[in-house]
Each structure stands twice: as structure tokens, then as C-alpha cells.
Design brief:
It contains 3 helices and 8 strands. With 198 residues, the protein is of the alpha+beta class. The strands form 2 sheets. It has a 5-stranded mixed beta barrel with strand order 1-3-4-6-5. A two-stranded antiparallel sheet has the order 7-8. A hairpin with a 5-residue loop joins strand 2 (17-20) and strand 3 (26-40). Helix 2 crosses helix 3. The longest helix has 15 residues, at 173-187.
Length: 198
């Protein structure tokens, strides 16, 4: 039997719910709303079309990572296997569209986000250091809120601060960088929801 794989863009419509199966397998789900945009030639402007509602279900490591990464209103991309469930309830025939997610991420056309390696993630270098372990001088990062911020992040933030117009703040670039990096590391989410109301 063939499977239908889809990639959809939309907004997280509910909080992420989390649970475990009786066998201890992590599972998370949320609803996503996908509204088509089309150009109305008569009015000469873009208008919203119909909104499609789907339930996204994730398993194992993806389920665990969704909890600390998504919030209601976030613009996201979801890729996975499409499932249409149908049943009869009394006289009425009901249906629901679901996506068994393979990957989920923020839609970067609408905002920014900051990636953090998950503990024990596949593809992560040994020791859990992420890409910073391969960068010379990464071990000499700045401590912020109990977490060591890799030096390559501090350097990037210092360069960003140096190119920004002066704000009159008395803090040094390193202190400002460690504070901003700490905010990114401790917030669980980076970026904004692209102007989407919660």
C-alpha cells in the first residue's frame, strides 16, 4: 500500500499536548490551521481563502522536542504521512485529517529561531556539545544562567552588537552577548510568532 507524504505550512492552533503510550513511548500532538492565500484580481489584493484544520501527531524524540519548542500561534512547517480518518456517529459521517509527523520546524519566512541540540540527539557529536565542539575556542564560552554559552555564539553576538547603532548602554559587548545568549538558551524558543496573535 502506498503512503501519501505531505509538507504543510500553517500556525499552531492549540497548545502541544504530551503523553506516553502504555509501553512508555512519548507522543505529542497539536492542531494546525493552514489558510490558503490567493490573489483577488477584482479587488487587486491578496485575500485569505479557506482554512484547513489538521491534527499533527509526533512520536519519540520529536514528541519530546516539540514540548519545549512550539507555542500556540507559532508559524510552522510540518512534514509527514497524511492520514484521513472517517467514522459514523449516529446518522452523520465524520472525518478528521491527521499528519503523522516526521519533522516539524518554525517557518523562517516569518521570523527567526535559535537551534539547540537535544540531549542524546542523533547526529550530535559525542559529549553533547553540538557544533561548538568542533569550533576552536568554543570551550572558552561565557557562563550565563548556569549554562556555558559557546564562544562562537558570543563572537557572533559581539559582531552583531558592534554593527548595531550605539544604544548608550554601559554593558560591554561580552556581557551583553552573554545575556542575550542566555535568554536564547533559557527561553525554550527563539524568534517570534511573526505577528500571529496567540
Amino acid at each position: 500500500m502506498s503512503e501519501t507524504h505531505v509538507t504543510v505550512t500553517g500556525n499552531v492552533a492549540t497548545e502541544v499536548s504530551y503523553g506516553e503510550t502504555s509501553g512508555g513511548v512519548p507522543m505529542a500532538s497539536f492542531r494546525i490551521g493552514c489558510t490558503e492565500r490567493r490573489y483577488d484580481r477584482q479587488r487587486e489584493c491578496w485575500v485569505d481563502g479557506e482554512t484547513q484544520w489538521m491534527t499533527v501527531t509526533a512520536w519519540r524524540a520529536l514528541a519530546v522536542n516539540l514540548i519545549g519548542s512550539l507555542a500556540k500561534g507559532d508559524p510552522v512547517l510540518v512534514s509527514g504521512r497524511l492520514r484521513v480518518r472517517e467514522w459514523v456517529e449516529g446518522e452523520a459521517k465524520r472525518g478528521r485529517v491527521e499528519i503523522d509527523a516526521r519533522s516539524v520546524g518554525h517557518d523562517l519566512t516569518r521570523g527567526t529561531t535559535a537551534f539547540r541540540w537535544a540531549t542524546g540527539a542523533r547526529g550530535q557529536p559525542p559529549g553533547g556539545a553540538g557544533p561548538a565542539a568542533s569550533v576552536p575556542g568554543a570551550e572558552s564560552g561565557v557562563e550565563s544562567g548556569g549554562e556555558v554559552v559557546p564562544a562562537w555564539i558570543v563572537s557572533a553576538l559581539e559582531a552583531r552588537r558592534a554593527s548595531a547603532p550605539p544604544s548608550g548602554a554601559a554593558a560591554t559587548a561580552a556581557e551583553a552577548a552573554s545575556g542575550e545568549a542566555g535568554e536564547m538558551a533559557g527561553s525554550g524558543r527563539g524568534g517570534d510568532a511573526g505577528g500571529v496573535p496567540a
